[in-house]
Amino acid sequence: MKTVRIIVAAAALLLVTAAFVSAQSLTPLERLGKRLYFDTNLSKPSGQSCASCHAPEAGFADPDRFLPVSQGAILWRVGNRNSPTSAYAAFSPVFHYEGDGLYVGGQFWDGRAATLADQAKGPFLNPLEMNNPDKAYVINSIRASRYAGLFEQVFGSGALDDVEKAYDQTAEAIAAFESSSQVNQFSSKFDYFLEGKAKLTKTERNGLELFNTKGKCAQCHPSTAGPYADKPLFTDFTYDNLGVPKNPHNPFYLMPPEFNPDGRNWVDLGLGGVLADANEMGKMKVPTLRNIAVTGPYSHNGYFRTLKDIVHFYNTRDVANWPAPEVPDNVNDTEMGNLGLTGKEEDAIVAFLKTLTDGYHLGKDAAELEEETVTLHHALFQNVPNPFNPTTTIAFELAEQGFTTLKVYDILGREVATLVSGTLEAGNHAVTFDASHLVSGVYVYRLESNGFTAVQKMVLAK
User: Fold this and answer.
1) How far apart are CA 148 and CA 161, in angstroms?
2) Which ranges of the chain have pLDDT less than 70?
3) Contact (Cβ atoms closer than 8 angstroms) between residue 55 and residue 61
4) What is the rounded distance in angstroms from the CA atom of residue 265 to the CA atom of residue 251?
5) Are strands 391-398 and 284-285 parallel, antiparallel or unpaired?
6) From CA 124, how far away is CA 35, in angstroms rounded?
7) What is the pTM of this model?
8) CA nearest 68: which of 345, 285, 407, 300?
9) Beta partners for 405?
10) What tens digit of pLDDT does each residue of 227-261 get?
11) CB atoms within 10 A of CB 140
């Protein structure tokens, strides 16, 4: 099992507007970094800034929730990965090897930049991003800006004359802003909960408990503080291959050969590609879960549209009908894939993750702290896994106590199993169906209780 690192937990995917960001006090170096971060004249053609792909209102990630990767300064040029949040990236240690096959820290999904300042240098010269021809073009654009005087105030008179040095200082300033309290706010509902100023609802508390136990989320996304910050960061800054499938909707596959010579055969090798190490192929940096609710889509290639989607993948990867991993080597097979979470438990984890969004406003009275009212409904859920062989779990919810039946039928309508027949209490229920005595095919299961009837299909694949 991968070494578990305790880190800063409690989180927030920054629902911050530009106006809110500007309200915080900054040092001159941070103010310069902010001007650089939001300057759309530092691309060729102009129009793209750091904030274009790392926007405050999107938790400092890409605000386009429909495109799995980010659009570049030149129309129809896109990067090959989903843009990670720049919030809380400042807490990541310098990329290093800790032994026992464990790499920690660095920047980008694949760790190719050792530090935050190193990372800031990359997008300016990337033809799929800001597309500047060279460092001199960037520095000349800064020289023509309204904040050129601030640059010299921070780094000294004539600081823009030495292109190499000025380029390094540009990255240093951007990293300083990204390290500021405007970007790393620790202002989520969960943060206030830790301070005793907010109360989690029953569902959110249940989600936190599942996050730390049955869901095994905290093994890579610790919800406790240390060693890189005195508050939870919800990442251990290590690298992992989750077995995420290729995203067929990734437009990078359609990039011209000069950018993607492999076309649809391109495979993202992650850390292994950077290190040329077979033991690290497919591994991506574990992201922070702060502000996760506003940074979708999810995973390095944007395969998952919603939080529910990716939580369900963590839960059922090995027992449901998911496509094959993009990189089948080094897949994590100890901390995910067959967690046995019910649909309600998945929803509870999602509810908890939503408490990690920055910019939470405390209520004016005690009404804000009341527990949520839980309303039960009659419902029959899709069995998990599906297709299955030979066992599967069927979950359902009852709004009130009553005589209940749950029966299974074959495609011709013949009853093949009675799973429930008796009086049940209101609430959530789950039963296991063992179809080892049946042949492969489509089956139907039917729930009846107090006048409520529901039917679902399932597939037995032997």
Assistant:
1) 12
2) 1-24, 364-376
3) yes
4) 13
5) unpaired
6) 15
7) 0.75
8) 300
9) 421, 448
10) 999 999 999 999 999 999 999 999 999 999 999 99
11) 15
